[in-house]
Specification:
It is a single chain. This protein has 642 residues and is an alpha+beta fold. It has 23 helices and 24 strands. Strand 13 and strand 14 form a beta hairpin. The chain is globular and about 90 Å long.
Length: 642
């Protein structure tokens, strides 16, 4: 079988690489005379990143360029926050860089340039060759139209589609500003007017460059907006009241390199193929740019079409399978883009929709990997939350692939005047209460902090934790763990900002960013956690709310044994299988980085004597080091040894 790909952009190149991996012959044809020498940047969904990982298997030494984006902050022009959302590690990449990346696997010699599609030669209803405007002809068995939104291949199959009326335009550019990118870190910031259809977005795409865009109601356009000076004046005027970061970008931008998108789409096609000709990417479907779906869809289409072509199915069945999977997803994206555009133009909704697609997967593998979601309401000074650490760690070891744990702050101790106790009723009782818990559960807890430097509130470490979560989920987890160790084992007052910043630096967080976020974004997110806790009637910490994709829920309050949590996982996903691998001691430390003596014995399932021997040996050979206090020892992985 020979596959003729018409269009040498991202969709076409990715398809060619994936076909070659399957041993399928192809011809890749591009209308331009060479690879592009310009382009801006775009966001790519994590699901599409998996396709790029598959492509990378050809040569693992070639690194994917770009910048990870793991949160979006939506603001008003006065810098007030509208919404903050965590993203599952999207990536922003310049178009030129991803073209170079794909070409490094394919080879430029594999692309036949200066081939703009003209028409097909048919034998009955079946296309047997593609004819190009330069007179060249390419014969094949299957033809893939990957020639963009204004696809000539699509027109030849179905006639011209009716594009929606252009009501919004988008000006896109790239600026070089490492200092501003360092400030934004891994954040997509979008400023939106609350009175007119006007927004500007700033997204880092490397350590040096940032893509920016301005979306605007075309009714705000006065006169010609085409020449560089006209573009600059247009943007400067409309964005005059936007924050300093926006002004900095506009002033440093080279407007001769900007591009103007006319935001439009067309209705979902009733089919993506006709006989042996099939469409992928923008040739098959176009959603409004509000969704940031285009490049992601190009890659996912490429993967799916090569999968069905290599399945051995009859062509009609293979293309029907492709349409069934992809059309259900892109149809929703088209609708989402229209909803966001309507709200953008009319300011008609108090709820601001996230301007990104959320989920792309729609296959059996994704169904198998569905997880239990656990909402975990806790607090850095909650002693019961410390007591259940061994059980949660064992759950992560044995069922970690089946659940996703999200931390929410419960606001246990605003201050002692407003404290609604679940434990000691007043500050003077806290030491004896903690001591009793330690003896009952055999978990290391020091109560000396209440005697030497009593805590006045749990809010400062809670807000610091929310700030850590904004930077990096894994580092935030280690930060949360470390401040608990400082409090419950080392008797440190974790309300002190200097201690919190030192601890953040210890686990690799950006302390300046953390400090900035504590005073603004993290405070907002902390209050959102408190509101969520109130809405769910959380009165006891910790509280666990487990749910599956069927809407089934299980709720636990307070201290829980491992078996209780395990049974809940199995009730919500009966097919879950316990990971019974025997773990080596070093593996445990690599997984958790730090362990108390009790946790190590509990997770290894060994006696106190065996525990003492193993830990002493690891300590003597330098694999771990220890922090000793009155309450006991915290054993910590020596990163330099491994």
């Amino acid at each position: 079988m020979k596959v003729v790909i018409i269009g040498g952009g991202i969709a076409g190149m990715a398809t060619a690489i994936l076909l070659r991996k399957k041993g399928i012959d192809f011809s890749l044809n591009e209308r331009d005379e060479s690879l592009p020498k310009f382009g801006h940047a775009f966001l790519i969904h994590p699901d599409a990143m998996e396709i790029l990982d598959v492509i990378s298997e050809v040569n693992p030494d070639i690194e994917l360029p770009g910048k990870i984006i793991d949160r979006i902050v939506m603001k008003r022009p006065d810098n007030s926050i509208v919404q903050i959302s965590e993203l599952d590690s999207w990536i922003c990449i310049q178009r030129l860089r991803i073209i170079e990346f794909l070409t490094s696997f394919l080879g430029v010699e594999q692309i036949k340039f200066d081939r703009q599609f003209s028409h097909f030669i048919y034998d009955g209803d079946k296309a047997i060759a593609a004819v190009f405007t330069n007179g060249e002809i390419e014969y094949g068995d299957v033809f893939i139209g990957a020639d963009g939104a204004h696809s000539l291949v699509r027109n030849s199959l179905f006639g011209e589609v009716e594009f929606s009326r252009v009501e919004v335009k988008e000006i896109v550019g790239v600026v070089e500003n490492p200092q501003l990118i360092s400030k934004f870190a891994n954040t997509f910031i979008k400023y939106m007017s609350d009175s007119i259809g006007l927004a500007v977005g700033l997204i880092p795409c490397s350590e040096e460059k940032m893509v920016w865009f301005m979306q605007y109601d075309i009714n705000l356009e006065q006169g010609n907006v085409k020449l560089p000076e006209e573009l600059k004046n247009h943007c400067t005027k409309l964005l005059a009241n936007f924050p300093a970061e926006v002004q900095e970008v506009i002033s440093s931008n080279d407007f001769s390199n900007n591009y103007i998108w006319r935001s439009t789409d067309f209705d979902l096609l009733p089919s993506f193929h006709k006989n042996n000709v099939v469409l992928i990417g923008d040739a098959a479907h176009v959603a409004m740019p509000f969704t940031s779906a285009g490049t992601t869809n190009a890659l996912l289409d490429a993967y799916k079409i090569t999968e069905v072509l290599g399945s051995g199915e009859k062509l009609a069945d293979a293309f029907a399978d492709y349409y069934q999977v992809r059309a259900s997803i892109v149809g929703k994206q088209i609708q989402l883009g229209r909803e966001i555009k309507y709200n953008f133009l009319h300011q008609s909704s108090e709820e601001v929709k996230l301007p990104l697609i959320v989920n792309q997967k729609n296959n059996e593998e994704a169904e198998i990997k569905k997880k239990v979601k656990i909402l975990y309401f806790t607090d850095p000074v909650c002693s019961t939350s410390w007591l259940v650490q061994p059980q949660l760690r064992k759950l992560a070891l044995e069922y970690g692939e089946y659940f996703e744990l999200k931390y929410y702050m419960g606001g246990l101790l605003p201050n002692w005047d407003d404290y609604n106790p679940f434990g000691p009723e007043k500050q003077s009782d806290a030491a004896s209460y903690w001591q009793a818990l330690s003896e009952e559960h055999q978990m290391q807890i020091s109560s000396d902090v209440w005697l030497n430097s009593p805590l006045s509130s749990s809010f400062p470490p809670s807000i610091a934790l929310k700030a850590a979560q904004l930077q990096n989920k894994i580092k935030a987890y280690h930060f949360h763990r470390r401040i608990k160790e400082l409090l419950f084992v080392e008797s440190k007052n974790i309300t002190e900002i200097s201690l919190l910043l030192n601890t953040a630096e210890e686990v690799g967080l950006d302390t300046k960013q953390l400090s900035d976020d504590i005073g603004e974004i993290a405070f907002v997110q902390f209050n959102e956690d408190l509101n969520r806790a109130s809405d769910l009637n959380i009165s006891v910490l910790p509280t666990f709310i487990l749910s599956n994709d069927l809407g089934e829920k299980i709720r636990f309050e307070g201290y829980q044994e491992f078996e209780t949590l395990e049974n809940a996982i199995l009730q919500l996903i009966p097919y879950a299988k316990k990971d019974l691998r025997k773990r080596e001691p070093i593996e445990l430390f690599r997984f958790f980085q730090s362990l108390t003596t009790h946790e190590f014995a509990y997770l290894m399932g060994i006696t106190p004597l065996q525990t003492e021997i193993i830990l002493k040996n690891l300590y003597q050979i330098g694999v771990i080091y220890k922090k000793t206090s009155k309450a006991g020892i915290i054993w910590i992985l020596n990163q330099g040894m491994l």
